[in-house]
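agent: user wants the structure for DUF1648 domain-containing protein from Microbacterium nanhaiense. delegating to structure tool.
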Amino acid sequence: MAAVSLVLPAGAVAITGLSWLGRLPAQLAFHWSASGRPDGFFATEPLFWVAFGASSLFSCIGLAVLLIPSRDHEDTVKSVTVVGTVSAFVASAWIVPAAATYTSHSADQAALGGWLFLFVAALAYGVIPRLLTSRRSRVSG
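agent: tool returned. relaying tokens verbatim.
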């Protein structure tokens, strides 16, 4: 189950990208001012590919950590925690601006609103693979 949790962020990027890319404008809102208005923009397709590539890379690193036997279970747990968090945060860097722009039908009108919660949740996501990394599944010496 830890392995599944490590690939979910990349999967979420892939699913949203396949669903939204043809319907998103060329630019996504990427930064919001204190007043809540978008004041920074990023090209849609490059952001998707960077987020998908990076979250996939971190997913692969996490899977390697799980598959390569280790004598130190705590190192494995720490590694999947960090890799899971980074992968989820990278995924949210695509999903949040894409979703805010998609639901507003315009980068200029994109409202961050509740999508901000996804960024915060991504920072805690590593706890999931951490809790799912079983001591019994590790090779000990």
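agent: one observation worth passing along. The helical segments are 2-20, 44-67, 73-104, 116-124, 127-132.
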